[in-house]
Design brief:
The protein is an all-alpha fold. It is 89% helix and 0% strand. It is built from two helices and no strands. The chain is rod-shaped.
């Protein structure tokens, strides 16, 4: 059997440390790839959400703008109708009733469009909150995984280090006792080192 000297112990410690660093690097690369894929997936989901919500918002805005134009036109029409009403007294009641109905319908439609716009914005807000929760949960999971990896790598390295320290201390104490007293002869079967 060969004796363990300081050089052999240092080489063994360097090999174990190197293997632990390689393992930690591989694990960190795997986590990095997983995080990159997840970030890409989240980016695609946000783009899908953006592409589906923005046309609706633009159409609603255009619809509201055209409704305002209709209301403006209706106001001008009412002004002209008053002049016409003064000239055409017998038909005034029928025209007034029709205009009142049109105005009510426009107000109802405008209120419905406004409530639709509010509902759309509400949905966008809920989806944004949901996306925020998803990203927060993802980052928390990555943080926990990093802590787990650190503990998983550090614990065995500390145990090996303490074991090597204990072995070194035992060897040094045995060497120290051998130099002080002559040791009785030991048969080859009884030797450990």
């Amino acid at each position: 059997m060969t004796k363990l000297d300081n050089e052999t112990i240092l080489i063994a410690f360097a090999v174990v440390t190197g293997l632990a660093m390689v393992l930690q690097t591989i694990i960190l690369l795997a986590i990095s790839v997983a995080v990159r894929k997840t970030a890409e997936s989240i980016r695609e989901e946000v783009e899908n959400l953006h592409s589906s919500v923005m046309p609706v918002i633009y159409e609603t805005r255009d619809m509201l703008a055209s409704t305002q134009g209709i209301l403006t036109n209706a106001q001008e029409f009412l002004a002209n109708a008053q002049g016409f009403l003064n000239r055409m007294t017998p038909k005034v009641e029928a025209v007034t009733a029709d205009l009142a109905q049109i105005t009510r319908t426009l107000r109802v439609q405008t209120a419905e469009m406004q409530s639709s716009a509010v509902e759309i914005m509400d949905r966008v807000k809920r989806q944004s909150n949901r996306l925020d929760e998803m990203v927060t949960n993802l980052l928390d999971t990555v943080d926990r995984a990093g802590g787990f990896v650190v503990n998983a790598v550090n614990k065995p390295v500390r145990q090996i280090s303490s074991m090597l320290g204990s072995v070194k201390a035992v060897i040094e104490s045995l060497r120290g006792s051998q130099t002080r007293q002559p040791a009785p002869p030991v048969a080859d079967e009884d030797r450990f080192f």
